[in-house]
Write a structure and sequence with these properties.
This protein is mainly α and 186 residues long. The protein has one domain (2-180). 54% of the residues lie in helices and 2% in strands. The chain is built from 7 helices and 2 strands. α2 crosses α6. The two termini are 18 Å apart.
Length: 186
């Protein structure tokens, strides 16, 4: 299901980019889709996750559930587990019940969901990933963001550079920073 939603979204993004920039070839779009798919292959095609789901298992009460055989891969990514996933879960539940995700009473004394950047209730790529559970939806949305960055960088470099320059540079320039994170969280 994850790969199917990703493929449909990638096709939609490719079609929209091609409509906006007709000089963007189908071959280039397919190439960028293949690069992103190769990078996110493990979480798209297996049960692996791109989000740091290993962090909670090092704190109580989850600490007693699994053996502590390794430390979390990146302790700096706690906001994904403690903020983004719970907020995205609340937003998804509300949207699927056709309720407006305005406020949550489930967190302390309450918190707005509508204007919160962590919940991002109406972010277009997150809305496209709504059929998926939040853990997989975050991965798919990030993959689409990377694809969109590559396609937009391709269009920009095509406009600014010579043909020998923009083909080689679009992948590297658009994906700067993404390649540094580990591709699969288990």
């Amino acid at each position: 299901m994850t790969a199917l939603v990703y493929a449909l979204g990638a096709a939609l993004l490719g079609a929209l980019m091609r409509r906006w920039r007709p000089d963007l070839s189908r071959r280039a779009i397919l190439g960028y889709v293949m690069v992103v798919t190769a990078y996110f292959g493990a979480p798209l095609f297996t049960s692996a996750h791109q989000v740091p789901t290993d962090i909670p298992y090092h704190l109580l009460p989850w600490k007693e559930v699994l053996p502590q055989d390794r430390p979390p891969r990146n302790q700096l990514l706690t906001d994904v587990v403690w903020q983004m996933l719970p907020f995205r879960t609340l937003v998804r539940e509300r949207l699927l019940r056709l309720e407006a995700p305005l406020w949550t009473n489930d967190i302390g004394t309450g918190q707005p969901l509508l204007g919160d950047a962590q919940s991002a209730p109406f972010a277009p790529l997150h809305l496209l990933a709504l059929p998926l559970p939040p853990v997989k939806a975050l991965t798919v949305a990030v993959a689409w963001q990377m694809l969109l960055a590559m396609l937009c960088m391709h269009a920009l470099l095509h406009r600014l550079c010579s043909p020998s320059c923009w083909r080689r540079t679009a992948c590297a320039a658009a994906s700067e920073g993404w390649w540094r994170s580990p591709p699969g969280w288990h």
